[in-house]
Amino acid sequence: MSSTLLRVCPSELKIPYEVKRQRSCCMQLINKTDKYVAFKVKTTNPRKYSVRHTCGILLPRSSCSVTVTMQAPRDMQLDHHCKDKFLVQSAVARDGATMRDLVPELFTRAPGRLIEEFKLRVVYIAANPPSPVPEEAEEEDASPRSEVTMGYEAKVSSAFDAVSDSITVLLCSIKNNIMPFLVTMCSFASQASRCMDNSGAKPSCTKGASVVPTLVGEKVSTREENQKRLQQNMELLREAGSPQQGFSVMFVLLVFMSSVFIGHLMKHIKV
């Protein structure tokens, strides 16, 4: 029998079946008329299902959703066969009707009163469909790869940390030792250049010449200390597992700059 008041979708309630877990589904009620329509939802097993919006009034050409929640089942059913059913009753209400007008007599059959009924059966569906590939085989295949990958990543991470620490130590050593040395040498070069420019002021040159042995001795001792610290830093880099051999580009560049600067300075001193 076709319904003239309400359209109920879907035609059956498909609820996922999972042990010890609640599952829900929805049905849609659509008012096909230009009148106010009252509805009521019933079930053959009210202890097993809870219904939200068991009754209500639909405005003309409006719709609403009804949620059906199944209580968590305790046992597993192999065939997923269910005999439970739902019944949706609908009747014409007066214009402007509200929830206060929903009385039991509204759904009682009487002469001249149109009451329609729509039945829905409950169908259980699998909550977790089986995978085409067995999970155990996937885990066995994935375990060795994951262990190898994790071991490689751990080695790479430890080597990277060791190299980073060594580079940090080297940069700190350069900042604390080489930079003051270069600043001192620049200061000494500026004093020597001023001394040579002022050739008429012999006492100033004599004073600068007396300072030369002291500064040269200090720079030699400082250079020896810097070489020792750089050698220690290189040993730390080798212990960190760096596969490269020889001096780093930064060290060669610093030695080259220091040699050029010292050669230029000695040239000025001889002049």
UniProtKB/TrEMBL annotation:
GO terms for biological process: endoplasmic reticulum membrane organization; endoplasmic reticulum-plasma membrane tethering. One of its GO terms (cellular component) is plasma membrane. Residues 5-125 form the MSP domain. It holds the Pfam family Motile_Sperm. Keywords: Membrane, Transmembrane, Transmembrane helix. It comes from the Eukaryota. The chain crosses the membrane at residues 246-266. InterPro entries: Ig-like_fold, MSP_dom, PapD-like_sf, VAP. Belongs to the VAMP-associated protein (VAP) (TC 9.B.17) family. This is MSP domain-containing protein. It comes from Aegilops tauschii subsp. strangulata.
